[in-house]
Every structure is written in C-alpha cells, then in structure tokens.
Design a protein that fits this description.
With 238 residues, the chain is α+β, with helices and mostly antiparallel strands. The chain folds into two domains: 3-52, no CATH class; 67-235, Beta-Lactamase. 44% of the residues lie in helices and 13% in strands. The protein contains twelve helices and five strands. The chain has helices at residues 3-10, 14-21, 29-38, 43-52, 70-82, 105-108, 113-116, 122-127, 139-156, 160-169, 211-214, 226-235, and strands spanning 88-91, 97-100, 187-191, 194-204, 217-223. The protein has a five-stranded antiparallel sheet. The longest helix is centred in the middle third of the chain and has 18 residues, at 139-156. It comes from Kribbella ginsengisoli. Residues 1-46 form the HTH cro/C1-type domain. This is Helix-turn-helix transcriptional regulator. Pfam families: HTH_3, MLTR_LBD.
C-alpha cells in the first residue's frame, strides 16, 4: 500500500503519513489507530504500535471463561451446537482448541492421550500420525491448506510459538506452491470403512475490542457429498 493510498483510505494528507513514517511527526493515539485500521493490523499489534508511539494499550486480553466475555462465549457455544450433527470447533491464535461440539468427540477416541491433553492443538491434531493424520486420505492437500493459512497469519502478526509449530509441522516438505480455492478442497477422512469428504469455513467476531475475541476463530465442517451427510446424521441425530 503506497503512502498516498493509505492517506486516502485514512482520510489524512499524504504529507502527514510521510512525516509519520519517517519519524518527523509524532502521531496521536487516534492517528495510530486510524492508520492501523486501514492496514488491517491485528489488535495485539495495534497495542504494540501504541506503546511504540508512547501511549497506553487500548485493547485488553480477557480469558474466554471470564465474566467480561460471558456473552461472547455463550454465542460461540450456540454456534457450535447449532452446527451439529456436523463437527465444529473454536481455536485461538496458536491453534489451540478452546471449544468443540459433540460431533468432534468420536474423532478423538483414537487420538494419542498426550495429544488430547489441554491445550489440544488443531495443527498437531491434524498433522501428527498419532492424531487424525492417519485417517486423512489427502494428507498432502490438507497440509498445504494449513501451510497457506499459517503463512498468512504469521505475515500479519509474527509469533514465536506459532513459528515454532510451523517449523515443526509444516516447513518439512515445503514446496511454496499455493492452493487455489481452499474452501473447495475437501478433507477426506476414512472412518468405519467410509470416506468422508468435508470442507470447512472460518467464522470470526466482527469489530472485537478484546484480544481474545480478535484471535478466536470457529471452524465449521460441512459434508461435501450425500454419503458424508448421511453418516453424520446417523451418528449424531439432532
């Protein structure tokens, strides 16, 4: 994004943006947040920018089970329950699973106990042979999708813990080839002699003011064919 593009989007002069970028002008807290909004900077990084500019952070980080986030937690629980009989789960910025619906439980029965210990990590669960990887038919496709998503996440907000996970689970065998139309690439899992074909969507909170909510995502899995839909309907009636 050029200085002019950013200035137009933020409704400020290009000269002021240039002075801020070169350190010749001290921006106000409001200007920092206005520019960060146009650059789609994650809330955690906006706090870092505010501190760098000499201001206090604006965004708190509350535990998901806190009173402050009780309404949000209840909303996530409703979304997960409403998605049954199909699997859905909520995870944080490190891909640690914080909530699941009942449809996820049957897939965890064969997972190694050490992988089920909290916090249960979605990347490790999906890519570790002791987890669900042994059930996934198209492991290379799934790994490529994960790789693409984590790359984008790290580009937006570098994080040491997520980088370590990437290096451990995704960097080996990296080809750099992009995946097109991720939402249409199914995850194929072989369970009980049946190949289940599913695709997923990601839901996030709109305009959150808390770091926990800003970094929380709900992944909902949908059947990609009638056989898969019938399997879930029979295994977990509404």
């Amino acid at each position: 994004m050029s200085q002019l593009d950013l200035a137009i989007a933020a409704d400020v002069s290009a000269r002021h943006v240039s002075l801020v970028e070169t350190g010749k002008s001290q921006p106000s807290a409001e200007m920092v947040l206005r520019l960060a909004e146009q650059l789609d900077v994650p809330l955690r990084e906006r706090n870092v920018l505010l501190l760098a500019a000499g201001f206090a952070p604006r965004y708190a980080e509350s535990p998901l089970d806190s009173t402050a986030l009780s309404a949000a937690r209840a909303a996530v629980e409703r979304v997960l329950h409403a998605h049954e009989p199909y699997p859905a789960l909520a995870f944080d910025r490190h891909w640690d699973i914080v909530m699941t619906n009942r449809a996820v439980d049957p897939f965890l029965t064969g997972v190694a106990p050490e992988l089920r210990e909290p916090p249960m990590n979605l990347l490790r669960l999906g890519l570790d042979p002791r987890g669900l990887a042994a059930l996934v038919v198209n492991r290379d496709d799934v790994r490529t999708v994960f790789r693409s998503r984590v790359r984008r996440q790290l580009a937006a907000a570098p994080d040491p813990e997520l980088t370590a996970l990437y290096q451990e689970l995704l960097a080996p065998g990296e080809t750099g080839e992009p995946v097109e139309a991720e939402v249409l690439i199914p995850m194929i899992i072989r369970v009980d002699g049946v190949e289940l074909r599913m695709f997923s969507t990601i839901t996030t909170f709109g305009t959150p003011l808390d770091l926990t909510l800003d970094e929380l995502a709900v992944e909902s899995y949908y059947p990609a064919d009638d056989e898969t839909a019938a399997y879930f309907t029979a295994s977990l009636p509404r």
